[in-house]
Amino acid sequence: MQKNFHLKTPRLELVPQGMEFLETTHAYASDRETMKYMRFLPNDSLEESKLFLRDAENEWKKETPQFYECAVLHQGEHIGGVSLYLREEKNSAELAWCLKKDAHGNAYAQEAAAALARWAHKELGINHFVAHCDSENNASWKTMEKLGMQRVSCTGGRFNKATPEEERREFLYEMNVKDKWRMLSRFDKKNIPQVMEVVLPLWSPPSDDKDFIRLDVEFIVRNNIYEPELSFQLTDMNRDPDNELLSAAFFTRRSDRNTARQWLSEASKAARPEQLRTLQMVSDYLAYMDAKTLSFMHDDDIKLSLFVSRKRGAGSALLAQVLPKMHAKGYKQVYLWTDSDCNWKWYINHGYELLSEEVYAPFSTKEEDYRTFVFRKALS
Length: 380
What we know:
Blueprint: E1 7-8, E2 12-16, H1 22-29, H2 46-61, E3 67-74, E4 77-86, E5 92-99, H3 108-124, E6 128-134, H4 138-146, E7 150-159, E8 167-176, E9 182-186, H5 192-203, H6 210-223, E10 231-236, E11 245-252, H7 260-267, H8 273-296, E12 302-309, H9 314-328, E13 333-339, H10 345-349, E14 353-359, E15 371-378
Parallel strand pairs: 5-6, 12-13
Antiparallel strand pairs: 1-2, 2-3, 3-4, 4-5, 6-8, 7-8, 9-10, 10-11, 11-12, 13-15, 14-15
Helix pairs in contact: 1-2, 5-6, 6-7, 6-8
């Protein structure tokens, strides 16, 4: 038996599925419209849902379960389920999920399936994952692709429970993580320390106070994190959890706002007057460059607020996956700003157009100008 199974993600919790979730399980499992693409749903009676939950409970009690049915909770509310079924093929398992209708469109299925897959890889040694769906179940196969799975076949012979007389087509997706596990997912704020490892040497203010240095740099990082659905990370699950981040990218729309300054107001209460002046200079600089970049943009453009890589090639790999997704969402161009503290030539070498270059006087010295840059690139 898997004792004390309880997985947490940035927004969700996964716990063993059981009879305590009967009412909420039946509510979504009996929804014929939501479950129309499922092979074994919808449930036409409460007894079917009870049977499913009894089987799930009994399997969790076994010393070596053959499948794992998990309830997905969001802020304590049961919103659906995610499953792992061990296959006859060694170290291979099938992933599946279903959520209630009003939980759709939030990438909860991706987040839950990713967490369960990570657990299975680490705890059960699962290296190969598969998933199936009806070829018209666009939300499901798009989730599979966001998990890093690849479509390997499209075949006939599928019959869904809601329309048993109609032969359907089925997509098969798979992912092999034996040698390398790279997963694109929403950024988890627990990884802010790993981001800071990259930027601390670049952005540290002149100070001997290590706590103040971290405060200053963390404010800069938080200033660039906006909406969760526009924050991405590439992780290597073969690494230790505290060292798994490969790269991260944070995007911003023209209308987005964040809470970095509110966070700084609370976090800097113990700062000395000269430290507060430094923080104000940094805040003014960030506001100036953000506003300047946004002035070039239209509503159908997107801004790359922060982009870091902890392993050579991982940054390019992340953007290669994310930028097409931004284009698919309708964004036309990506904008960004950087400065002489960063590797700004990387963007020129990767096809970005330089729109603006100027000297920022407050950070310049007699010996060296502090240069800032605004770049743009068309999405296609």
